[in-house]
Amino acid sequence: MNDPTCRVLLVSGDEIARYGFGDGHPFGTDRHEAFMRELHKRGMDGRVLRASARPATREELEWFHLAAYVDLVRERSVTGHGYLDAGDTPAFRGVYEAASHVVGGTLTAVEAVMAGTARRAFIPIGGLHHAAPERAAGFCVFNDCGVAVHYLRRKHQLKRIAYVDIDAHHGDGVFYAFEDDPDLLFADLHEDGRYLYPGTGRAEETGAGPARGTKLNIPLAPGAEDDEFHLAWARVEEYLLAGKPEFILLQCGADSLAGDPITHLRFTEAAHAHAAARLCVIADELGHGRVVGMGGGGYNRQNLARAWTGVVGAFLDSQAQQGSVGEIAAR
């Protein structure tokens, strides 16, 4: 880890671990610790740089979310009563602070990569891709992915940013917020919405208005395994190479692994490691090397621990990865 280009930052700690829901909710607060135990077991915790999450500012949250919705979250954060959507995402005391730290944690990761203090970065409790500007959805209160896109544009004047999503659920909160933005590259590999929440992400959904034809949605049938993943993933690589993004965000939800209690895909953790490794190759070949991973979904604790440590391992090993743009394009 003496070579500064090899640095990998992990954003972790109690601030983001508090984001979760009680009473047997699938998105519990134990997910962070399950990942950290596996990271330690594999000896990776001593190989990464470490940072804690900061809270996102009100201004940062409102780059993506409506002020009235931010107010609602703050109000229900005090009482801990009610829901923030139609029934999947309950309020709890301190939900505003926990959710704003998730957003701030993703921005901490993004900023470290932009500053050059890290080559890649990972935040386990991040990737809350369902939240819409005006509401929570699917266990997601604030959309850290969407805020990160605005952050990169406002603070660093980047234009072409790639959002890649391999969570079993379609990243609808990101897709529809940037549906008409031709400079937001969107590649989402997910379980077919006819069988899984949120019911969106058809292959025909390629963008709107000036962005029509610029987005890539790849729905897969329930039961799809690594072979189907790799066939679809080749399309993602081709898409990214053509788009030449200046920064890559990876939402690596582990609910696409076999054995998740609420989804039906059957990937192994090798799919997640492969995706992370190949994105590093692409980012390096494009000349910037900027990749940030966000944990996303995953409700089988063993699965998420293995998938996310696989991503971190791929980031750590990425300098040794072989391959070039020519080799990728030749597939």
From TrEMBL:
Alphabetized Gene3D superfamilies for the sequence: Histone deacetylase domain
Residue ranges annotated for the Histone deacetylase domain, each copy included: 25-313
The protein's name in its UniProt record: Histone deacetylase domain-containing protein
Record family assignment: Belongs to the histone deacetylase family.
InterPro entries in alphabetical order: HDACs, His_deacetylse_dom, His_deacetylse_dom_sf, Ureohydrolase_dom_sf
Organism: Steroidobacter gossypii
A UniProt-annotated Pfam family: Hist_deacetyl
